Amino acid sequence: MKRICRFILTVVLVTYPVILWAQAFDEPDTVVHTSPEPVHSDAAPMDFPQPFSLSAVSGQHEAPAIIVAQAIVGEEVPARELATFTGKEAPEEAEEEVPLIADPIAPFNKAMYHVNDKLYFWLLKPVTQVYSHTVPEPFRVVFSNAFDNLMSPGRVVNNLLQLRFKAAGNEFIRFIFNTVAGIGGLGDVASPALGIKKQEADFGQTLGHYGIGHGFYLVLPLFGPSSVRDGVGIAADRFMYPLSYISSNELTFGAAAGIFAGEKVNDTSFHIGEYESFKDAAIDPYIAMRDAFVQYRQKKVEDSKK
Amino acid sequence: MSLQEETMKKYLMGIALFLCMIIPLPAFAGVPLETVKVHVDKVLDVLRDPALKPESAKKLKKERIRAIAEKMFDFTELSKRTLAQNWSKFTPEQQKEFITLYKSLLEDAYADKIIAYTEEKILFTKEVPLTEKTAEVQSTVIRKTEEIPIYYRVILKDGVWMIYDVVIEGVSLINNYRSQFREILVNKPPESLLETLRKKVKKA
């Protein structure tokens, strides 16, 4: 009980100010009509975006929203707004709304993107290739089920927080059934036996469900593309991860890191080649990944409202 | 004829009548879904063909896929929707070249994405009408550890349903390319985007 209270308190205390602060980066809901010309048209290359000024953010209460939007979005003028000016002969069918994300710390994000890129090619991929050759696929599937089963309590809680009671109930039954009948979740027996599929839910999605925006784009080392909101989500989801509640005497930091690495390698073994083909297809992999992240998360939030 | 036989006969006739009533319906309603499914199956056949597996047959494989893609995708619609407002910044010649370059980029990208799923089961689940002339055909790739939703958006052109967007796990292909092209077109002329594409296509 004490644990749960502490968890709720920590989540609220940590989440609230961070989210409030990050909200300043989200685009204002109202359409802001800036000049039709790009603000930084003088060939500001992507690698040197406008210096990001915190004062512009903190002064948001006095400054009209338009200034904040300009200051934050920097080199990336909201194209949706821009479009209303230049689109004289736009295709007949209306363009679909593209979700955008502010990227005020682009230099950091780009650096992290390259770190993750190198981590993949130099470390994760070679290790995974050896692993895949050593461990036959059926075993890897079993491990994948077991790792996934540990995330199940988090999905139950998040489904509950999103008031999706049916999904929460299903995920709860699935967790119990897979843990008992599937021997600690080694087999996903709930899908074939009960016809219950995984009910995806995470805390970043829960925040999005209640109308909280991304804040700004954030590339995390190891975790990859994320945002302030989803970063908070990842942290909060750790509180719903059963292994977080094993004392450090029994589960040392090294062991926990080992489990994390094992999960990552095992998971990657099913996805070798996907990142490569993504990069091959992209004109600008950094932008492509940022956009894919926003679209992917947008879909998750939309799904949570169904 | 015994009573039991009579009941049986009635029962069978009932089934036959019922079947007559339901069978033609999906045949009419499912045109977009059927169209996409047939094309995807053809692409998978090429990718799964053991004769085309070796590296040496790569060129032939690409040609085959290209021929199917031509009938499967509406590349003009794709290009227009991708460039959106920027489309009008291109001269007709530039538009033409853009379509050609974008086409070969997409063919490779699509083949690359779908090739990862050649061993998996692909289910076509349903179709959702979007507007009068557009629909979304939903499919799922069943993998060992997950399910991946792939949605095809199709448009009716001259009585044929053609794909103008592929949405994988909520990520729309044209939206993704639009954001990349926009980044270039904000500061640079259309010619510079074409140059980037030329280089990209040549490398592949």
Account of the protein in words:
- The complex is a heterodimer of chains A (306) and B (204).
- By secondary structure, chain A is mostly helical.
- Chain A is built from 13 helices and 2 strands.
- Chain A has helices at 2-23, 54-58, 65-73, 79-86, 106-134, 137-161, 165-180, 190-194, 203-209, 228-239, 253-268, 274-281, 285-304; strands spanning 217-220, 224-227.
- Chain A has a two-stranded antiparallel ribbon with strand order 1-2.
- In chain A, α1 packs antiparallel against α10, α5 crosses α11 and α9 crosses α13 (285-304).
- The longest helix of chain A is centred in the middle third of the chain and has 29 residues, at 106-134.
- Chain A is globular, with a radius of gyration of 22 Å.
- Residues 28-94 of chain A have low confidence and may be disordered.
- Chain B contains 8 helices and 5 strands.
- Chain B has helices at residues 3-22, 24-29, 31-48, 58-72, 75-83, 92-115, 173-187, 190-203; strands at 121-129, 134-142, 147-157, 160-168, 171-172.
- In chain B, strands 1-2-3-4-5 form a 5-stranded antiparallel β-sheet.
- In chain B, α3 (31-48) runs antiparallel to α4 (58-72), α5 (75-83) crosses α6 and α5 (75-83) packs across α7.
- The longest helix of chain B has 24 residues, at 92-115.
- Chain A binds chain B through residues 38, 41, 43-44, 46, 76-77, 79, 82-83, 86-91, 93, 95-96, 98, 137, 141, 144-145, 148, 197, 270, 273-274, 277, 280-284, 287-288, 290-292, 295-296, 298-300, 302, and chain B through 80-81, 84-89, 105, 108-109, 112-113, 116, 131, 134, 143-147, 169-172, 175-184, 186-188, 196-197, 200, 204.
